[in-house]
Design brief:
22-stranded antiparallel barrel, 36 strands, five-stranded mixed sheet, mainly beta
Length: 664
């Protein structure tokens, strides 16, 4: 893709976006004069609920409650477009079509979650029990999704009290007790919630404690034990006139002895295997305001957020040189203010957001610590239109200004524009064609905080902001319970963050490209469902395949399948389910040239049964899971690969997970 052609695509999209928005604004003014309510018509094919034009993947509360994921990897196990490495919770991070989470806009209840603690650790410690839904925009994302969505956006939403209450309840509670037979892990969750007279209150807490698990070879994977404490509290009030304010706080703490590098196999030292205390915490607080009774001109959303990610790694190995011993933290303060206006052909959302990221690392082997600060201010417009009966459009633009104060006390000020355009067209009542393009300006990417524990880095004075071109297009078919979808995607990123480790200098990296296609087939009955998903992803960094050593950039993916099915025997109050994850072998000259072995394929099969034993106690559920039933010894895709000196961390072998859930 030549530079001239890329700029032509960007300019054309920006011009088209601004033209559509320019047409929408006068219509908005005219609508104010008429003072007439206008509702955006929904376009839904038969057998399918109306869906966002932008979001390609939605994991809803029904799916989360049915699958009961315990980790980030469990949460995305049915979505092959999103991969999560195995090993301990400390090492789990997500990749979207092979693109590292640090290049995605990730939020929890609107609060930005920065990925930049340490490349050997995960980027997002969370408890899926708290989640209501997850929405994924792969590549093409709207302007109001936020800045920095280079490879897409992922929005996690946590549960409210009303999501937990049983029908007819205004006060309720939930108790969950689970046990994993492989790692001998006990997991206890307790929740209390109420909603009355406009007030809502919710409190959830989880405690998980267990030992290191055994892999499929029967070998204990040291440093994979569980010691997790998590809690979520929410308080909300909604007035009779629809004004709603919510305050929430979430805290997650993973505290255990881990491998010196959590995402690798055991690294040896002069005194034996190197292990180290590893305490990762995340605290997120959000205050939000919205109205549940919007008018044509008043449909606001205001979010004030604070997130703190920390990693504590004391110098327990007593090395005299920098060797993974440090304390690092990333603090993010954010504000988003927006309002959606009704216009004759749909809605127009306008607003601004700002954030400040403070990065700090205590360096035990230097006389000075290291700090960085990033300030970003942005404004956005996003129109969602239905100009004709079968056509839906979503187009917008945002402009961002970033001021980056680097670790070597330089200041980089940059401004950029990010247009986007998505559409779907109902060819028939059953068949929909969809597609989109976005140009995403990302400023200078946040550096990994813990990198600075090893050396005094400096920044090249000619650094360029990272940018990305994203396209996605395909067909979707739905009839009664049948669902079919095929989509091709391409992400092309320029000037990603990179480092010259010889001169300890930050530089612009080579172009990063991820392309491939996603296929989905499924069928739903009232008491059952089956689905099959396949993703082929080819990721290149420069002129070679992306490698697992390309930290904070991308990983090789290849071909992945995810199969799922469940069937409910309503008279017996019994549900049976099964899932499988299949990965094909990956071979490439770049692996051998850079010291990696071929990436082995694997097949993992899981079963579950869920039973409500007493007809008189319909809110008591027993669940038994048999995971990795064939005891496969495998390295989950996107984990660090095998070299002559690095043995990967194998995933958990066969295990049975037993759960009792009571709602009252």
């Amino acid at each position: 893709m030549t530079s001239r052609f890329r700029h032509r695509i960007t300019s054309t999209t920006a011009l088209l976006t601004l033209t559509l928005l320019a047409q929408a604004v006068p219509a908005l003014a005219q609508d104010k004069v008429q003072d007439k309510a206008v509702t955006l018509p929904s376009v839904a094919v038969e057998g399918e609920a109306p869906r966002s034009v932008e979001a390609a993947t939605v994991i809803d509360q029904k799916t989360i409650d049915r699958e009961l994921p315990q980790t980030l990897r469990d949460l995305f196990q049915g979505e092959p477009s999103i991969t999560v490495p195995g090993s301990s919770t400390a090492a789990q991070k997500s990749y979207l079509h092979g693109i590292d989470q640090s290049k995605l806009n990730v939020t929890i209840d609107g609060a930005a979650q920065r990925a930049g603690i340490w490349h050997h650790n995960g980027n997002l410690t969370l408890d899926p029990t708290f989640l209501k839904s997850v929405e994924v925009d792969p590549g093409v994302s709207p302007a109001d999704a936020g800045p920095g969505a280079l490879g897409g956006a992922v929005a996690f939403k946590t549960k409210n009290a009303t999501d937990m209450l049983l029908p007819g309840q205004d006060v309720g509670a939930t108790a969950i007790l689970g046990y994993d037979t492989n790692s001998k892990t006990w997991r206890t969750t307790g929740a209390g919630y109420a909603a009355k007279h406009g007030f809502e209150i919710l409190g959830i807490g989880t405690l998980s404690r267990g030992k290191s698990y055994e892999n499929g070879n029967g070998v204990t994977e040291a440093g994979t034990g569980t010691d997790l404490v998590s809690g979520l509290g929410k308080l909300a009030y909604e007035s009779d006139s629809g004004h709603r304010i919510s305050v929430s706080g979430e805290h997650v703490r993973d505290d255990a002895v881990r491998r010196l590098r959590s995402n690798l196999g055991i690294v040896g030292g002069p005194t034996g295997p190197l292990m180290n205390s590893n305490t990762a915490t995340r605290t997120t607080a959000v205050v939000s305001y919205e109205t549940t009774q919007p008018t044509d001109w008043f449909n606001p959303g205001v979010t004030v957020s604070y997130t703190r990610n920390t990693l504590e790694r004391p110098n327990e190995n007593r090395r005299t040189t920098a060797h993974g011993a440090f304390d690092s933290e990333v603090d993010t303060i954010g504000l988003t203010v927006k309002n959606s206006f009704a216009i004759p052909t749909g809605t127009l959302t306008a607003g601004f957001d700002l954030s400040r990221d403070d990065i700090h690392i205590d360096r035990f082997h230097f006389t000075t610590d290291a700090d960085e600060r990033i300030t970003t201010v942005g404004g956005f417009l996003q129109a969602r239109l239905a100009p004709v009966e079968r056509l839906r459009l979503s187009t917008g633009v945002r402009i961002d200004h970033q001021s980056y104060r680097s670790v070597d006390h330089k200041t980089f000020d940059n401004t950029g524009i990010s247009p986007n355009l998505s559409a779907d067209y109902a060819v028939t009542d059953r068949l929909t064609a969809f597609g989109g393009y976005s140009y995403n300006w990302g400023g200078l990417e946040m550096a990994e905080a813990a990198l600075f524990h090893a050396a005094n880095y400096r920044y090249s004075s000619d650094l360029k902001p990272v940018t990305a071109h994203n396209t996605r297009a395909g067909l979707r078919y739905a009839h009664q319970g049948l669902r079919l979808e095929a989509a091709a995607f391409l992400t092309y990123m320029e000037n990603p963050v990179a480092w010259n480790y010889t001169t300890y200098t930050r530089v612009n990296g080579e172009d990063l490209r991820s392309r491939g296609f996603d296929l989905t087939a499924g069928y739903d009955w009232s008491n059952a469902g089956i689905s099959a998903k396949y993703t082929h992803t080819d990721v290149k960094y420069g002129n070679r395949m992306a490698l697992s050593s390309d930290y904070n950039t991308a990983v090789p993916v290849g071909d992945l399948f995810a199969l799922r099915g469940h069937y409910g025997f309503e008279d017996l109050r019994l549900t049976l389910g099964a899932s499988a994850e299949i990965a094909l072998k990956v071979e490439d000259d770049a692996l051998r040239a850079n010291g990696f072995r071929s990436i082995d394929g694997y097949q993992v099969v899981n079963l579950f049964t869920e039973w409500k034993p007493l007809e008189t106690a319909p809110n008591w559920t027993l669940r038994a899971e048999a995971n990795n039933i064939f005891d496969a010894a495998y390295v989950s895709r996107s984990s660090y690969g095998q070299t002559s000196t690095v043995q990967p961390a194998l995933a958990e072998g066969r295990t049975f997970y037993l759960t009792s859930t009571v709602k009252f």
